[in-house]
User: Fold this.
Amino acid sequence: MSATRAVVVGGGIGGLASGVALARAGWDVTVLERAPSLEPVGAGIAVAPNAVRALGALGLGDRLRDLSALQGEVGLRRPDGRWLVRENATAASERFGDQTLVLHRAQLVGMLADALPDGALRLGVDAAVVDPGDAGRPARVRVRTDVGPEGSGSRTPAHGRESGADSKESFDSDHSPAGGGTPGGASGSDEEIEAALVVAADGIDSPTRRRWWPDAPGPVSGGSTAWRLVAEVPPGEPVGPVGGETWGRGIVVGIVPLADGRVYSYASVTDAAGVPATFAELRERLADWHAPIPDLLASVDPDHVLCHELRQLPAPPASLVTGRVALVGDAAHAMLPNVGQGGCQALEDAVVLGVRVGGGANGAAVPELLRRWSGERRPRVVKVMRMSAQMAGMSRVVSPAATTARDLGARLAGPWSAALGAWALRGVLGWRPPEPGTVAAFDDDA
Ligand SMILES: Cc1cc2nc3c(=O)[nH]c(=O)nc-3n(C[C@H](O)[C@H](O)[C@H](O)COP(=O)(O)OP(=O)(O)OC[C@H]3O[C@@H](n4cnc5c(N)ncnc54)[C@H](O)[C@@H]3O)c2cc1C
Assistant:
């Protein structure tokens, strides 16, 4: 029945999770992803306790048990290796009820894709919302299948799924376009899908946001550049259980042991510290930092290292919803990665959407249910975006005097700073998925 048709634009963490959440709620879901395969770029991702619970709500609890939690010692160090704040990861996690998991992105994406119904994922297709719909009219999504030499809706995607080559769907005969054709000039390899619900999870540069939220602020520079890599543990290095961040002048390096024995590492350099032009230059800059940083950086092929300028949205749009379209994940609230919550918030978005919009039994109610969902989600993501920006500000300190003051403050605070961090994060990491059938408080203006 077409009134239960949901289309998701984008097959990243937010889109895949939305597809899973909506399918579990009873929607007939199609996830449309532009890339020809779901091979995520090589890096790790921290899944904080709030997102661990979100994944549990998506039925992935059993899969999570096979993954490693952040363990051993974690904390904050200076480039010479001296600890500023040091804590046991298990003790830190226990404050939030669940542990933080660290996994390779491919694992997370694969897990979500595998949880979609067969045929729900279409790869190599470019999707555009051509009509957001309203209470009396379905939304319409134009799907283009000739997006590149590799792009094709009929390829066998990663994770062993066959893509479902849907043809045009009808929402409701009363609302079908005149003649049942493909309005908006769809032709050739274009097709149109009508949907009672559209989730736009098309990333920070979201074409959907740009078109349907023309007044919403676009992405801005976060003032730094990040390198990300996954490396083998250098021989003789006791890197296994020792993770955490090292803060220098405008440079932050993170080391995160993965379950399979490898190490996920990142380095971000603020513009004011002078961003290295190449990875080789970054290696030189960090050559005298504490072990195992120089060896880790030396052990990887520069071609396998990701380098991105960090960007963020200054704020989410005034509402995350227009008509039957909901903005999810980075499309709505791309934030700096300093609190490691961008993907986690996308997972929360998806789970809450599945619960609040329910099974789509009443197609006409979708715009109002989405509006309430926005009112519930927007204040929360604004808070997390602000926290990420504040944390980024501290890590961007460059001058020797300010760096010394920052480090001294962290060292003197000692265990208090860990407790303070835990207090500040409690509201974020302590989140729990809503129970189906419950009604949320929401901000009517969002
Ligand atoms: C350095 C760094 C470290 C990070 N670390 C963490 C961390 O530890 N923990 C954490 O939770 N988060 C982290 N994040 C943030 C996290 O990576 C993002 O928030 C998350 O990946 C966003 O997922 P998304 O699905 O919203 O967007 P995306 O991953 O950008 O996915 C959008 C998808 O939409 C597709 N698409 C776009 N347009 C179209 C179209 N027209 N048709 C079809 N498909 C389309 C794109 O191809 C893409 O696959 C980090 C980010 C950075 C930069």
Remarks:
- Confidence is low (pLDDT under 50) at residues 150-187.
